[in-house]
Amino acid sequence: MSEVKEKPIILVTNDDGLNAKGIKALVGMVRDFGNIYVVAPNRANSGKSNSITVEVPIRIKKVRDDENLHIYSCKGTPVDCVKLALNKILPRKPDFLVSGINHGANTSVSVHYSGTMGATIEGCLNGIPSVGYSLNAFAADADFTQSIKYGRKIFANLVENGLPDGVCLNVNFPDGEIKGTRVCRQADGRWKEEFDHRQDPFGGDYYWLTGYFKNAEPNAEETDEWAIHNGFASVVPTQIDMTAHALLEGLKKWDYEIKD
């Protein structure tokens, strides 16, 4: 008699909050791949990167508990959600982690600020094949039809091939029709920050962060920024090890001797 194979456990999270349209699209995208556990923030946590909650308790609430779909709302950051899921909620270590689908792109240096990718990286740190998905559209009612179609294919490839230890995927979709998928590198660019200065009724100063992204290489066709602005989904392999290996030998030649 053949042994019945256990369904994979897939942890789903995001940074836009449990009620965002993007995470609902993501759940639908991966639901038939396994046993789904959704642990997501109870409100928007954009820009939280890898932040964790340490000064106040973290509260969690079970929202739904079906046969293959278990949903929890967490009063914490995206990384809090992953940590709680791994330590207190899931019956075992998940086979995969998916984060998103974020409302707004997370290309180039945005990977360092993104709560979507913060959760993805946390999964990777724990040895879980992980992928973060983002759509280059900020509207609450954004159309995720194309993202689901191409994102599902990317996830199927992840299931089949896995990932090396210490590597996760950062996937970004263009808004509208998608021409295909490109494996890319992270574009060179930065956010040009501006602050809108205002005063409250008592004369106190306060600021709203604004600004825009400046792509330093807009014509580099091998980058994620070029891909999503030219109708392609971008897939960037993103690694945990931030060591500048090319500089190691050069740094060893510095003079570190302390002279009295």
Q: Can you characterise this structure?
A:
Helix 1 packs across helix 4 and helix 2 runs parallel beside helix 3 (115-125). The N and C termini lie far apart (77 Å). The mean pLDDT is 95. By secondary structure, the protein is an alpha/beta fold. The protein has a nine-stranded mixed sheet, with helices on both faces. The chain is globular. The chain contains six helices and eleven strands.
The largest sheet has its strands arranged as 3-4-2-1-5-6-7-11-8
The share of residues in extended strands comes to 25-35%
Number of helices: 6
Q: Would you report the number of β strands?
A: 11
Please give a quick description of this structure.
With 260 residues, this protein is an alpha/beta fold.
List the helices and strands and how they pair.
Blueprint (H helix, E strand, L loop, with lengths): L8 E5 L7 H10 L4 E7 L18 E6 L3 E6 L3 H12 L6 E8 L11 H11 L4 E6 L9 H17 L5 E7 L6 E4 L5 E11 L5 E11 L8 H6 L2 E8 L8 H5 L8
Parallel strand pairs: 1-2, 1-5, 2-4, 5-6, 6-7, 8-11
Antiparallel strand pairs: 3-4, 7-11, 9-10
